[in-house]
Amino acid sequence: MSAKTKFNSIDEKGTVYALSNPAMSHLLRVGYTNRDDIEKRITELSNSSVPFRFELECSVNVYNASQVESVIHKMLKPY
Length: 79
What we know:
The chain is of the alpha+beta class. The chain contains three helices and three strands, in the order H-E-E-H-E-H. It has helices spanning 3-11, 38-46, 65-76; strands at 13-20, 29-33, 55-63. It has a three-stranded antiparallel sheet with strand order 2-1-3, sandwiched between helices. Mean pLDDT is 88; it is low at 1-7.
């Protein structure tokens, strides 16, 4: 990994989110976006073969958004 690539991933700002959907009440969708408007991302996901719109359960703005999302997935894997 080059120094530039490593720096860019460390400096990456984004929003990590958890979404629910009434059609899948036992699941949460955890993801991240680099966009300023999380509602646009929710709309995109809600138009992707799900019968109901996703609902935002929580979100947090962080650095290293992709890495934070990955850690959350690893922590939740047993569940």
